[in-house]
Every structure is written in structure tokens, then in C-alpha cells.
Amino acid sequence: MTKLRRRSVGLWFVAPAIVVIAVTTIYPVIWTVQLSFTGGSVLGGTRFVGLDNFVEAFNSPVVHRSLVSTLYYVLGTTALTVPVAFMVAVALERVGRRLNRAATWIKAVIFLPVILSTVIAAIVWISVYHPFGGVFQLLPLPFGLDRVNWYQDEGLVIPGLIIFTLWKRLGLFVVMFLAGMAEVPKDLLEAAEVDGAKAWQRLRYVVIPLLRPVFLAAIVISTVFAFQSFAIAYVSTGGGPNGASRILPILIYEEGFRSFRQGYGSTLALLMLVVMGLISLLQMRALRTRIED
Amino acid sequence: MSRSGRDRIDTGLLLFGLLMLAALMLLPLLWWVSLAFQDTAGLRAPTTLGDTWIPDGLYLFDNLAIAMRLTALDRLVLNSVVVTASITALEVTLATLAGYALAHVPFPGRGLVFVGVVILLSVPQLVLIIPLFQLIAALDWVNSYQGIILPYIVTPFGVFMMRQLLLHIPRPLLEAARIDGASELRIFLRIVVPLSRNAMLTLGIFTFFLQFDNLLWPLIAATDEAMHTLPVGFAALNTNIATPFNALFAVTLVVSLPFLVVYLFAQRRIMASFATSGLRE
Fold first, then answer.
1. What pLDDT score does B46 carry?
2. Looking at this predicted complex, what is its ipTM?
3. Are residues A37 and A75 in the same domain?
4. Residue A115, Cβ density class (10 Å: 0-12 exposed, 13-18 middle, ≥19 buried)
């Protein structure tokens, strides 16, 4: 009796979490799949439409454009943020060895945007990019860079959002790399130094291989975060100009809660899930295989 | 050149680069603060935002007053605090309970539960919002605190993170207490909670910042302005053409101030929390 109670007591600790997660995650996932086969709107009643939503999504130029914008933004953000964060972390670690206080303060400044509310940060950057009185007009920039109208130009809106996202999230990844670098064994680096390895060689052959798990984590997290950048796009551009920055989160929100086509919106959400999953899988594959050789 | 001499030059060059980067990153924030204090009193859109870094006067409170005429700031703050505090308290409590059992109390089906949690980690919020909205609509919880809080009472992420962090509690300590006949609840309250204070703080800080910042779900769950949280209210203020830019900057600056002060004093703790949370994901 006591033995049996002992055996299942752990269940009582987990039960509240299981119940909540079942209601707020598991049930919605199943329901989304079910909804994706329904048509009509919440207001006018829904009905089963088979694969109609999927056919519509695959043939829709709006969805194609959204997918391209999303991938451009997600891959651009990650390709820029992760290497820059790594370089900054290396520099901070190096400077911190001699000038600890200076490194601490620089790190604090670089991390500051991370704790700032995303909505507020996006509003601040509207002023940065503002064509009349933005920060670029106040700097002596060459090549007409001060005249660039980032958020109003269909070709520049995604790069504009990428730069903003870099600014907003850089500190997070710098701190992650620094945490990873703190765990690199000191004697390993000293051994390499004794063997005559130069600073960049120690970096290339000791630090980077050891940090591979951190690189993988940073790449995956940056990708996952970027895919879900609803607030950034919603506040900065609202998906404009002319739909050029209408990334999938915005499109799903618009279909689900503006047009109230919740069946079609669910189809698009599943589409996003599949694309996200595929990209994460590819990234893990790419980094795993390189560990082996 | 001597080894340490070259090292000093390298450090100097890197320091210079880092200082440039830090200055560049501060620029938008300085522009924000500067504009919050300036009186440009014009309309939005084609009019100029401002053309000087040095404010022409201290118009911060005038700008703030304009913003407060356009939005119920006290209501936004109240809603944000209620929602964020409730979510953080619930998430930390329930995730610690579940994480502890998953790490240290064997029960039938534990492996299955853990695998389930790991799989659910990667489900993005956007896949859940449409059904969740239908759920709170069916419960008549649209425009209510419980509706805004519901999806975040406890998350797979919180459970997973606490499980990983609590693995570090030494097993012999728990075994000794069990042999002494202490109940699991007693062990949890007397041994696990004091030992996992740091882990709870890590999850708490991360959850607080994440939820205080959440726009998507509160935007959907609260259609009534009286139930808006700060991010929703600011987003609305931003799309309202009647809002002068300077008012927007003043109000966002004032709301951010407490965060900046807390950050100034607890930056190390906050960064550690974000780094751990990131790496556990």
C-alpha cells in the first residue's frame, strides 16, 4: 500500500502541468489540424471542405510571397546574428582578460536591447528609419545612405527588419557564446599555446570545435525566434509596404483574426510548422555531419 | 616586439572595435531619449521628427500628458502587471513541481511524459492561437484576465528547463530524507525548494521578461481597450495617426525606466538567466 503510494506520488507533482499542457498545447495542436480541413468563417458557420484550404494555400501568390519574405528574413537574421555574436563574444572575452570592467560595461550595453520590450524597440526603430529626421539623416553618411527609406521600400524592408533584429537580439547570443566559452577548459588552451598555436589557430582548432553545440543552439534558437517575429513585423511595418514584409505570422494573424477565416489560417499555421521543422532539421543535419569528420 | 606588448595592442584594437559597436548600438536609444524630451509638436508622417540630438527644452512631461490623453496608461500598466505576475508565479510553481518529479521521483509513465514535453517544446505559439481563441470564446473568457493568462499557466519549456536544472540536486540528499521517512511533499518543500531557488529565479526572470513583452496573444484575447496590456496599448498608439511621435517616445521611455533601473543593478543575474534559458531550449 505504502509502496504503491510511493510509486505514484510523482504523478501528483506532474499532474497539474500535464492537465494544463493537455488543454493549452496538445488539444490546440489536434484542433488546428482538424480546423485546417474546414472552410467558411467563424461568424458564418464552418463546414468540412477536405483539402480545399491546402490547395488554395499552395496556389496563392500571397502565400508564395509571404513564404519568400519569411525565409529571407529568417535566414538573413540568423546568418548575420550568429557569426557577429560569436565575434563579439571572442573580442569581449579577450578584452575582459585585461580590462574586466570595460568588458562588463560594453557587454551590458550590447545586451540592453534584449531586455527592452520588443514593441517599444520596434517603435524606437521606426524613428531610426524615419525618412525625415531619422538617425541616418543626423549622421554624415556617404553614398546617399542617409536618404534610404528602409520601411517604405519593398526591396529594403526585409533588410531593414533584419538589421533591427540584429540590434535587438545580438546581446542574447553574445551572452550565450560567452557562457559556452567559459566552459572551454583552460589547460586545453594553454597546451595549444605551449605548442605554439597562434591566437586565431587556438580559436579555429580548439574553441570553435568545442563550441559546436553552442553554435547549433544559437542557430536553432535564432531561427525559431525569427520565424515567430510577429511583434517585430506587426509594429514596424504591419506587413507593408504593399505586403513586402508580410511574413507568415502576420499572414496567419490576418487570415485568422481579421478575415476570420480560421480554417484557412490553421492551414497556414501548419504550413509554417512544417517549414520551421524542415529548416531546423536541415540545420541539425548540417552541423552533426560536420562534427563527425 | 615582446609577447605581452603585442597582446596589449591586440586588446587595444579589440577594445576600440567593441566601443564603436557599443556606441552604434546606443545611438537608437539616445535618439529615442532625445526625441522624448523634444517639442516638435507637429503632425506625424511627412513632417520632420527632429534634427538635433540636444533637446530644445524639457518637454517630456508635456509629451507624456499628450500620450495619456490618447490611452489609459494606468489601466495598461495594471493589466500588464496582473497578467505578467500571475503567469510568472504559476509557471514557476507548476514547472518546479513537475520538473522535480521528472528529475527525481520515478513514477509509472515518467519516460513517456518527458518525451512528450520535449516534443511539445518545438510547437510555435502561432499554431495554437486559433484553437485557443475558440476555446476562450467558448468559455466566454475573451476580454478577461483568465483568458489572457490561460495559455501560459505552465509551458513545456518551463517544465523542461526546471527538469534540467533540478537534475543537479544531489540524489543522496533526497534518498537520506526518504529513508528517514519524510513524505515527498515534505522533501519538496524542505529540501528541493530551498536548493532550487536559483533555478526558480532563472525561470522567473525569463518568463517575466518574455510575458511582459508578449503582443500576439493579448492582442487576440483582449478586444476591449480596457483589457489591453502595455504592448497591445503601445501598438495601438503607434497605429493611431492622432499620436504625435514625441508622445509615443515619452510614454514608452517612462514605462521602460523601471526596467532600465532594475537592469542596471541586476544585469549579471538577468544575463545569466537569459543565457541559461537560451541554452536549455
1. 47
2. 0.90
3. no
4. buried
